[in-house]
User: Fold this.
Amino acid sequence: MADYKIKVWRQSPLGIGPGGGEGPGGKEGKFETYTINNIDSDLSFLEMLDILNQQLLQENNIPIAFDHDCREGICGACSLVINGVPHGPESSTTTCQLYMRHFEHNSTIIVEPFRAKAFPVIQDLVVDRSAFDRIMQAGGYISVHTGAATDANTVLIAKQSADDAFTAATCIGCGACVAACKNASAMLFVAAKTSQLGLLPQGQPEKTNRTLKMVQQMQLEGFGNCSNHYECEAACPKNIPASYIAQLNKDFLISSFTNKEFECQNDNCYES
Amino acid sequence: MSISLHAKIPDGPLADKWDNQLAHFNLVSPNNKPKYKVIVVGSGLAGASASASLAELGYQVDCFTFHDSPRRAHSVAAQGGINAAKNYRNDGDSIYRLFYDTIKGGDFRSREANVYRLAQISGQIIDHCVAQGIPFARDYAGYLDNRSFGGVQVSRTFYARGQTGQQLLLGAYGALNHQIHQGKVTMHTRTEMLELVVEDDVAKGIIVRNLVTGEISRHSAHAVIIASGGYSNLYYLSTNAQACNVTATYRAYKKGALFANPCFTQIHPTCIPASNENQSKLTLMSESLRNDGRIWVPKKLGDKRSPEAIPDNERDYFLERRYPAFGNLVPRDIASRAVKNICDQGYGVGSTGHGVYLDLADAIQKLGLKTVKERYGNLFEMYQRITDDDPSQTPMKIYPALHYTMGGLWVDYHLMSNIQGLFVLGEANFSDHGANRLGASALMQGLADGYFIAPPSIGHYLATYQPELPDSQSSAFNLALEKVDNRVNKLVNISGQHSADYFHRQLGKIMWENCGMSRNEQQLTSALEQIPQLREQFWQDLKITGSDKMLNAQLEKAGRVADYLEFAEVLCHDALARNESCGAHFREESQSTSGEAKRDDEHYSYTAAWEYKGDDNTPQLHKEMLNHDEVKPSNRSYK
Ligand SMILES: Cc1cc2nc3c(=O)[nH]c(=O)nc-3n(C[C@H](O)[C@H](O)[C@H](O)COP(=O)(O)OP(=O)(O)OC[C@H]3O[C@@H](n4cnc5c(N)ncnc54)[C@H](O)[C@@H]3O)c2cc1C
Ligand code: FES
Assistant:
């Protein structure tokens, strides 16, 4: 059993709290510190927050908003920057799979949202990551009509390509890569997505267009540039290697040469 | 509304029924399709695949999910794989065999025609998914790999490492994104459906709440699809995600849709046990561990020694003892009940006593650690991350948990409920799995429903329907909206003492103890007394802080728990009325002298479909009798 001080970011950008008053943390947001005692070391970080929220509720305070769902490291809903690190101190671990045994008794734990211009805060620790969805909508798919496919074994795929594509495909879309990057770049996310499809034969016909459109959308969303520090790789709970970024750089370069219509639409233009 | 349980199964021999149906579906002409609007609630495998495929055809689609992105639906968590009768292994698989296995696995409580169609479509699903770029496992020659799963004798399961659900969902999400990009699907994220609107016995639309702003709005359409997933976490602890719930289907039930076989709930034997009472979920550990692991408890009551210190002759390998022929590989339901039994007798291990050892020591000694790690390395890691124990050093602890719900809204062959224009897909409907689902069959069913069955079936329905959009300002919409508004207000203003979670936990306890792995009349009657009391307490003593005009997780949860508190009763009524043991439903009154489940075909060969009769009345049972023309019911034996 351990005790902690939880210093947590509270913010209510909508500015609507109970009785029409200001929400927790106000519109601009601020840190609040809470004390929580007798935490079992076998509890997960989110279960600790559940208990803190029960405590807040009992004290007539408003519980802290945070995103979560599967609690088994696969849906990508949970986020949080814990003591300065997206998903906390353990490597290859999402916040929902982080356990309190990794935190010392009587320590102060600082909890913040994933911060990025493209991820506006909705409430407290909940941010809007729909920019990722819009990047995917711009071209992150193979446009096959239901019913059009030929027998699955007519396309042979070398095991190595299938495995490489799979590694890229394990991205859970959590956004830790963006939160870890000092430029809030989404390059690792986009690279994982373009590489998954680009490495497979089915993905070839649309490759040029896909790469250009997704990169363009990434820029429009206000994500920063990649300056090759690879903090993203270190923060990725699924260990997606930054080498996919090199692959994207290469694909992007080739695509922009072969597609004359493409023009960069943003001063924050992609530099490869 | 008068209830008709007409399943609308097409004529002809079993193998020709779907083709006959396809040949006779009404069609909507291409230039008329854009005039029709379909609402889809849910963006999991079933909802995303249906939305994308309907939009590809030209219909306007509005898709709703309470998640922040369609990609987070709980389909994402499926691990093992997806079945298809491709017979790529040349091991004797066929459409018929997949059909047969599914019927038998479901303990003869499903509709033959539906199951046969599922098996027929299974191959097309794999074709489509490969075309979408889903990175299924392959062999060195570049061909798709298969494994055997869930105790069947052929290798028909396609998989993408341990993350098949995630990959399939990303494929469906891609197809959905394509249509969103084309402007044919309007996606509403962080939006929860709270009411179905029904006018003149026809589904006309839904009422939703925006979870960020609290705004309540109305949406009308020519057809409504519910693909909202299963209700396992009614039991509080389950392998499902935190937000999985019964609200969408239960709200439809209260508007007249029949709820079929609610008591068919599947329990998975190998989950990581709860280690303390604040735990929020149970994580599934793949069943494959039972291939090499031995399950045991100490022979001596209250033996607190560490497992390594307990010599072999003081261990009770109770599955091997009770089921010498199958040993640790008995089916899911048998294993689960045996584990619970032994723990109820006080032999359980771990801090709560709700756990048994799953020991790989013998396998490690025989095969070497390297081989064992090759097989189960990722599971070892996952287990260690959660429990801090290394399974290569000390046995794992496991305990059964709620995992999947075969029950759901009643649908006919067209996947339409008894309410005209309300279609139900995926885990939310009751079709195909009978009283017990086989491993790797839920993903198959969700995608069959969404990609291949719903699109022509809905076209068939729409073809007879006028293209004017139902008026969303009608009195039915006004009433439904008002109801949602009142309910939300009521919930925020109770000002009691306890959180929604507190009540959910209590409900889970009542259900697990009285309507869990094995059920009897006395327990079920007791549950039916306790649930209304808890519900009353909930409505008097719930506490929510913050307003309904902000992101308020407590309020969201309270609405879902409120529905669970009513639905639990329907489930118990169903369990009580079915006085036979079949599939996952074990009635203690219906067992052989050796404790085996006894099915009663003479009295219970039907689908139980429950009709809402008002808040203060018992729901009414309707029966759809099942015909077993093709496969004669036999005993599911594991000896
Ligand atoms: C841990 C685990 C492992 C599994 N492994 C396998 C496996 O290996 N093979 C297999 O075949 N099956 C497996 N299953 C079962 C299978 O994953 C599910 O049955 C299936 O994915 C359900 O898909 P669905 O589309 O019906 O529902 P879901 O994927 O649960 O989607 C439900 C959707 O509905 C939305 N929704 C719900 N209610 C509302 C509402 N009121 N308003 C708005 N939106 C709403 C949600 O936001 C979500 O988008 C597993 C299940 C679990 C839990
Ligand atoms: S809650 Fe799903 S990944 Fe953490």
User: Anything to note?
Assistant: Residues 266-272 of chain A have pLDDT under 50 and may be disordered. Chain A has eight helices and seven strands. Residues A 68-71, 73-78, 94, 96 surround FE2/S2 (inorganic) cluster (ligand 2) (CB under 6 Å).
